[in-house]
Amino acid sequence: MLFLISSLISTVGLLVKPPAEVLQLGDFDDNGRLSIDASTSRRLAARGMDLVPVDALRPLAEQGPFHLLIHKLYGDDWRAQLEAFAARHPAMPVVDPPHAIDRLHNRISMLHVVSDLDRAADKDRTFGIPSQIVVYDAAALADSSLLAALRFPLITQTLIADGTAKSHKMSLVYHREGLGKLRPPLVLQEFVNHGGVIFKVYVGGGHVTCVKRRSLPDVSPEDDASAEGSVSFSQVK
Question: Boundaries of each Inositol 1,3,4-trisphosphate 5/6-kinase ATP-grasp domain copy (predicted)?
Answer without folding.
Answer: 122-236
